[in-house]
């Protein structure tokens, strides 16, 4: 089964359900979706999204990102949209990095490691992640999460969802790494490098582009190790930082796992 859905202008759109869980159950397909932003979605893309019957869309981007690339939604869509109002008024960190850092493979990887150390604890993410899990416990229909590229904020939240539902670490990592296939980094890297040069006047190496725009298992490991250093376990983080207590966990499992 291909998890990736073909879209004209929405990247990395896929189902991250339909995995076995440790309890001998299986996450229902068609209930958990993830993608990149929808600002360039074509009308045909919007029809495809509408056909999914989404109950909720969780947009993990900053307010400034949403203003710069406003989402297109299907006409007449009744799905709820969850967004963050936390706005520091500053530039997105990855844009600042691209404009100011040496664009090498090592610097790109170091930036990603630092980003994954911060992601689980930044106020907008704590707010949105908590609201997402409450939605999973209450929503009767499919839920879509997305950020800008659909790989880091979205990837971490999808991995936390897999952990909560009892998906194996091997399946979790395999799903996380699907971004690299969805985006076809090797083929797109030269064009991305040209776009970066046009935006910043600076030249990025091929390795830097791949490291910055892709995902690696160690990125997720960095986030998990940081969470465990702060809270002891992922389960403790889910409960203390995001409010996912035993009752909410049970509701989520009953709604999503067959």
SSE map:
Elements: E1 14-15, E2 32-35, H1 43-51, E3 56-59, H2 63-68, E4 80-82, H3 93-100, H4 105-118, H5 123-138, E5 143-146, H6 153-165, H7 169-183, H8 185-200, H9 206-213, H10 217-231, H11 234-240, H12 246-256
Parallel strand pairs: 2-5, 3-4, 3-5
Antiparallel strand pairs: 1-2
Helix pairs in contact: 4-9, 4-10, 5-12, 6-7, 8-9, 10-11
3D architecture notes:
37% of the residues are buried. The model has no long low-confidence stretch (mean pLDDT 91). Helix 4 runs parallel beside helix 9 (206-213). This protein starts with 13 loop residues before the first strand and ends with a helix. The protein is an alpha/beta fold and 258 residues long. Strand 3 (56-59), helix 2 and strand 4 form a beta-alpha-beta unit. The longest helix has 16 residues, at 123-138. The chain has helices spanning 43-51, 63-68, 93-100, 105-118, 123-138, 153-165, 169-183, 185-200, 206-213, 217-231, 234-240, 246-256; strands at 14-15, 32-35, 56-59, 80-82, 143-146. It has a five-stranded mixed beta sheet, covered by helices on one side. The chain contains twelve helices and five strands.
Outline:
The chain has 258 residues and is of the alpha/beta class.
